[in-house]
């Protein structure tokens, strides 16, 4: 990452208000994976927005992007368990609104639980080029959000999961990694572009359909589920 790139990214956040920064370490990977889209008008969906730091990056890095942001702005159990994060909860939505206000109609905020919001978007026939799954990081929540979001991702679209590499000390039910692995075992149409703390995939036009390949995937899923 060059110094000029760092300076450009820093300018995007000047005058904005944030209490946390869980996001900027991912910027170099996002820039690499999304750089071929900088001149495209794309539709993006973000599940979990907090104060809008990731939203600002997508809106700035993809200047023709239209972004749907889904969040309850009430926090999750992990936020409620942390005194510092809990103290900031009353200001989270106000900060999100202020930080994204300069982008006007390019931002659509949906203040709702992710399941309700994704169900509504799916029934409305909405489709997206980019989806960022960063709501709850619990296994079952991540899997449900992904299963609801995936049909809305266009062929050639890209999906980013946060926190794949996080919470290694936690029980399986509280980790995102298992949900992502199970989903990828089932979906051969997901081509991995990046695997690290986050996982980024591209949705290819066709999935593997050979019975032997399907049986292999189902056996792998069965072995994973047997550990729950």
In CATH, the topology is named Rossmann fold
Computed Rg = 18 Å
Look at the structure and give the CATH class. Alpha Beta
CATH superfamily: Vaccinia Virus protein VP39
Counted beta strands: 7
What is the CA–CA distance across the termini? 40 Å
- Structural class call reads alpha/beta
Most strands sheet? 7 strands, mixed
What overall form do the CA principal axes indicate? globular
Query: What CATH architecture would you give?
Result: 3-Layer(aba) Sandwich
Number of helices: 9
Roughly what fraction of the amino acids lie in strands? 15-25%
Number of spatially distinct domains: 1
Mean pLDDT: 88
The spatial strand order of the largest sheet comes to: 3-2-1-4-5-7-6
Order of helices and strands: HHEHEHHEHEHEHEEH
Sequence stretches where pLDDT stays below 50 over 5 or more residues: 207-212
What is the helix fraction of residues, given as a range? 40-55%
Q: What does this protein structure show overall?
A:
This protein is of the alpha/beta class and 228 residues long. It has a single domain, classed as Vaccinia Virus protein VP39 (Rossmann fold). Helix content is 42%, strand content 18%. The protein has helices at 3-12, 27-34, 53-61, 77-80, 83-100, 114-123, 139-149, 176-186, 211-225, and strands at residues 43-47, 66-71, 107-111, 128-133, 153-161, 190-195, 199-203. It has a seven-stranded mixed beta sheet, with helices on both faces. Strand 4, helix 7 (139-149) and strand 5 form a beta-alpha-beta unit. Helix 6 (114-123) runs parallel beside helix 7, helix 7 (139-149) runs parallel beside helix 8 and helix 8 (176-186) runs antiparallel to helix 9 (211-225). It is globular and about 45 Å long. Mean pLDDT is 88; it is low at 207-212.
């Amino acid at each position: 990452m060059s110094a000029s790139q760092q300076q450009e990214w820093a300018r995007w956040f000047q005058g904005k208000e944030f209490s946390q920064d869980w996001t900027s370490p991912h910027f170099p990977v996002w820039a690499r994976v999304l750089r071929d889209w900088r001149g495209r008008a794309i539709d993006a969906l973000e599940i979990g927005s907090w104060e809008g730091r990731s939203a600002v990056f997508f809106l700035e890095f993809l200047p023709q992007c239209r972004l749907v942001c889904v969040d309850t702005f009430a926090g999750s159990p992990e936020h409620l368990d942390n005194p510092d994060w809990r103290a900031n909860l009353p200001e989270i939505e106000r900060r999100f609104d202020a930080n994204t206000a300069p982008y006007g109609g390019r931002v659509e905020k949906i203040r709702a639980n992710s399941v309700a919001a994704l169900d509504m978007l799916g029934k409305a026939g909405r489709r997206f080029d980019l989806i960022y799954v960063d709501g709850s990081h619990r296994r079952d929540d991540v899997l449900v959000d992904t299963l609801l979001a995936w049909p809305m991702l266009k062929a050639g679209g890209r999906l980013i999961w946060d926190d794949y590499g996080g919470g290694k000390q936690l029980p399986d039910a509280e980790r995102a990694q298992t949900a992502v692995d199970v989903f990828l075992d089932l979906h051969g149409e997901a081509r991995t572009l990046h695997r690290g703390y986050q996982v980024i995939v591209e949705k290819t036009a066709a999935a593997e359909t050979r019975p032997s390949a399907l049986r292999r995937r189902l056996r792998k899923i069965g072995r994973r589920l047997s550990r729950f």
